[in-house]
Amino acid sequence: GALTPSGDLYDMLTNDMTRAAVTASLLSVVLASAARLSSNKPIPSIAEQFFVQLTEVDDSTNGTVTLQESLFFDGAARRSHLIAEGILVQGHLEEINRCDTHPMGYFVTMGGPPGTTPAQWQCTNTSIDPSPATCSLKNFWDLPTNATYEGTATLTLSTGVHAVCDGWMYWSNAEQYSFYTHKNTAVPARLAKVTTDPAFPSYHKWHLDFTKFVPGAPADDAFNAPRGVHCNHAPLPVADYMKLTLPAIKVPHGRVLSIMDRISSWQNSVLP
């Protein structure tokens, strides 16, 4: 006659199958939940007191290195020192912002053509009211909170290092950007402009590699000008010193430029 399922062996098998089905179902729920969480992964909070070395590459000219930079930044103390070398600044440029000195703060910009020494540089020194209402630095890592997480990618940085990174995409002023940190860390790796505003066909695509990042407040002497620089006495204070940093660049009225904005502006306005 026909076999009918019965006995302890059948019960054991069916119970195992039921448990396996339940386990598989739970696993699918967990994986789906993990995928949802991963897709919403936010950009980590990156220290606003740091030293970083940067290399800027023009992706519209087959990878031309346009700028080598070092930046000492202390948002809490309201001071920064940017050192840039390359074709975007036509030689050497340094900018020092000090909102932490009294009775007056100051903004110094100095530099010269390639091969010149500090004693040969031009220098402009501007006094500023150091009160927080008048003199402040915008956060350097001022990135959109609604950036879309794109998953992980392996980047070849300008140093030749291959880095596994988390990546995000966002739009700003009709241009698309990608931002990367080293995977599961708050260490920046790259910022890239991947599409440009169609209204400005001369704008270039570029990427900026953060090749060395040291969190923590830089030492006091990191914000001093190099020895040998000669600056005239500072004129009377100005209310909005950030408007003086790049007079050749068209800046929307009332907008305060961050250092990151200025780097992007150099690319848009200096390159042919």
- Rg (C-alpha, Å): 26 Å
Q: Spans of 5+ residues with little confidence (pLDDT < 50)?
A: 32-37, 238-257
Tell me the number of strands.
11
Work out the helix count.
2
Shape: globular
β content, as a range? Answer: 35-45%
Helix and strand run:
HEEEEEEEEEEEH
Main structural class: alpha+beta
Summarize the amount of helix as a percent range: 10-25%
Q: Which sequence of strands runs across the widest sheet?
A: 6-5-4-3-2-1-11-10-9-8-7
The average pLDDT value, as a whole number, equals 80
Topology:
Blueprint: H1 7-39, E1 49-58, E2 64-74, E3 79-86, E4 91-98, E5 105-112, E6 122-128, E7 148-156, E8 162-172, E9 175-182, E10 188-195, E11 206-215, H2 259-270
Antiparallel strand pairs: 1-2, 1-11, 2-3, 3-4, 4-5, 5-6, 7-8, 8-9, 9-10, 10-11
Task: Record keyword descriptors for this entry.
272 residues; alpha+beta; eleven-stranded antiparallel beta sheet; globular
Please tell me about this protein's structure.
With 272 residues, this protein is of the alpha+beta class. The protein is 17% helix and 36% strand. The protein is built from two helices and eleven strands. It has helices at residues 7-39, 259-270, and strands spanning 49-58, 64-74, 79-86, 91-98, 105-112, 122-128, 148-156, 162-172, 175-182, 188-195, 206-215. An eleven-stranded antiparallel beta sheet has the order 6-5-4-3-2-1-11-10-9-8-7, with no helix packed on it.
